[in-house]
Design brief:
With 156 residues, the chain is α+β, with helices and mostly antiparallel strands. It has five helices and five strands. The chain has a domain of 85 residues: S16 Ribosomal Protein, Chain: A.
Length: 156
């Protein structure tokens, strides 16, 4: 069973509040849950977040995958840091392989002004590029296919 940490909507119409729950990933959004591990009220200023960190770390160490929103909430509450600092002291049955294989620090976010230097098509005049095209055949350009050879008995 694939366990997922995600939000379950509660509250009145136009006044949402959420429960942070551990649930089988095949269940519907507001369906039956395995465990309620916290609450989230986005309508308060600032948003009210209440998560039982030890239960969240328990589910994460047993292979539960958080949704995008829940992973942000876990980072805010500190449960994600607890889980990361737990490291290899997780369960010995090997069910935490995916979390252990992940790098300990996230990769730096790319900057918007980063420009990759890619060569333009046709600007590659290196001898390696022209070596694989025989001298007696014309080189094909991008998007062109092989020229069709006429079949025997077919008029040209």
């Amino acid at each position: 069973m694939a366990v997922r940490l995600r939000l379950k909507r509660t509250g009145k119409k136009k006044q949402p509040s959420y429960r942070v729950v551990a649930v089988d990933s095949r269940k519907p959004r507001d369906g039956r849950v395995l465990e309620i591990i916290g609450t989230y009220d986005p309508r308060q200023e600032p948003s009210a977040i209440s998560i039982a960190n030890e239960r969240a770390v328990h589910w994460l160490s047993h292979g539960a995958q958080p949704s995008d929103t829940v992973s942000k909430l876990l980072t805010i509450s500190g449960a994600w840091d607890e889980f990361r600092s737990q490291g290899s002291s997780g369960p010995a049955d090997g069910s935490d392989e995916a979390a252990q294989a992940a790098p300990s620090e996230p990769a730096p976010a790319p900057t918007p002004d980063l420009v990759l230097d890619t060569p333009e098509p046709g600007a590659d005049d290196s001898p390696e590029a022209s070596a694989d095209v025989p001298a007696d055949e014309p080189a094909l350009r991008d998007g062109e296919s092989e020229p069709k050879s006429p079949e025997p008995g077919e008029a040209q």
